[in-house]
Amino acid sequence: MQRFADDDAGYLNWISRNPDGYVVNTNRSPSPSYLILHRATCRTIAESPTRGGRWTDQYIKLCGGRAELERWAHEEVGGPLKPCAHCE
């Protein structure tokens, strides 16, 4: 699992190299109330940022396999991942 904060280039490189991977979009201080699980190819986290900013400034991205991200959310944050409505 890789964590990206203030590293759009690294994040975009990861999703381009791991099209079958998953991405958790969450606040800089992850909380159970906002843990969104996306496929790496999801348009909402792989094209242009909707707010015109950067991908990894206000939010962080955790990237990896689905099982390891689910385990991280449960063990480290104490909540389940919420599947993205666009790609799940």
- Strands, count: 5
Structural class, please? alpha+beta
**Count of alpha/pi helices:** 3
In N-to-C order, the SSE pattern is EHEEHEHE
> Which term fits the overall shape?
globular
Alpha carbon gap, first and last residue: 20 Å
- Rg, Cα atoms, Å: 12 Å
Arrangement of strands in the largest sheet: 1-4-2-3-5
Approximately how much beta-strand content do the residues carry?
25-35%
Q: Mind summarizing the main beta sheet?
A: 5 strands, mixed
Q: Compute the average pLDDT.
A: 92
Helix content: 25-40%
Poorly predicted ranges: none
Number of domains: 1
Features:
88 residues; five-stranded mixed sheet; single chain; 5 strands; alpha+beta
Write structural notes for this entry.
- The protein has 88 residues and is an alpha+beta fold.
- The protein has one domain.
- 30% of the residues lie in helices and 25% in strands.
- It is built from three helices and five strands; from the N terminus they run βαββαβαβ.
- It has a five-stranded mixed sheet with strand order 1-4-2-3-5, sandwiched between helices.
- A hairpin with a 7-residue loop joins strand 2 (22-27) and strand 3 (35-39).
- It is globular.
- The two termini are 20 Å apart.
- The mean pLDDT is 92.
